């Protein structure tokens, strides 16, 4: 909430909503019990955080690092939490592996078809349960991370689709990545920006983030 107050001071008249992104499935060096190179956080371990966030008026984003697993399968595993009105979903293509891939060997990627399977399911879940619009976040810092991106569906009224540009490093490089990823994007997409506390040199403060990143991001996160 202190961070929200700083942004609102930098942008008079703009209201900021606090949010909390949780990496719920984490890409792993070894195959793990499911042989999919992705460790799932149990719902029971996440429930206290999700419930507290709702009590405090904080939006939650569940982030998936799928490894070799199906993103749709992992999303469905967290259906109980996604039924909460304040919980959205994020996909992290960096950590999507092929059948023989392993984390950190190369930057992963997903197809528009894979993304659309998840968004269609999430939109229907939202619609069937009369939930408010959910945030649907796609992390991307290389064009190849989302193949045939022009075919990604952004027309589900139940979802606010966000392409989250999460490159790290010097400000000039990050702004360059921001401009590059924005080119040729699908219609009706919202945009996200990430500040890395340790990796960005220097990390932009709230005032500079709002002044330098144009157009203004719809989602700003910190890691």
How does this model look, in words?
The protein has 223 residues and is of the alpha/beta class. Helix content is 31%, strand content 23%. The chain contains seven helices and ten strands. Helix 6 links the parallel strand 8 and strand 9 (190-195). The relative contact order is 0.13.
Quickly describe the structure.
By secondary structure, the chain is α/β, with parallel strands linked by helices. 31% of the residues lie in helices and 23% in strands.
Residue stretches low in confidence (pLDDT < 50, at least 5 long) are none
Q: What integer is the average pLDDT? A: 95
Taken from the alpha-carbon principal axes, the silhouette is: globular
Strands ordered across the widest β-sheet: 2-1-3-4-6-8-9-10
What proportion strand?
Answer: 15-25%
H and E order: HEEHEHHEEHEEEHEHE
Tell me the span between the first and last alpha carbons.
16 Å
Q: What's the total helix number?
A: 7
